[in-house]
């Protein structure tokens, strides 16, 4: 009977340890995933900003080459 008590106590300790490890791993995975998403979003924003700049530059160039309308 005492041996079963020790087995149960050891089982409880191991399960607590495994839950703590799982939470630690989950947190690390979450942090790494969040960092990756942030990096990808920043890259996407930079890419879109560059495309907008290109379009604006093209529109400016086009506007400068057009003659002014007669009033």
Q: What is the number of helices?
A: 1
| C-alpha geometry | rod-shaped
Rg value: 31 Å
| Secondary structural class | mainly alpha
What letter string, H or E per element, gives the SSE order? H
Main beta-sheet annotation = none
Strands, count: 0
Share in helix: over 70%
Q: Which helices and strands occur, and which strands form pairs?
A:
Layout: H1 2-65
Describe the structure in your own words.
The chain is an all-alpha fold and 71 residues long. The chain is built from 1 helix and no strands. The radius of gyration is 31 Å and the shape is rod-shaped.
Jot down its keywords.
71 residues, mainly alpha
In short:
The chain has 71 residues and is an all-alpha fold. It is built from 1 helix and no strands. It is 90% helix and 0% strand.
């Amino acid at each position: 009977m005492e041996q079963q008590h020790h087995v149960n106590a050891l089982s409880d300790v191991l399960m607590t340890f495994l839950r703590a490890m799982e939470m630690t791993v989950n947190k690390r995975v979450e942090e790494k995933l969040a960092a990756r998403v942030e990096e990808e979003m920043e890259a996407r924003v930079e890419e879109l900003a560059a495309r907008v700049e290109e379009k604006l530059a093209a529109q400016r160039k086009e506007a400068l080459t057009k003659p002014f309308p007669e009033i």
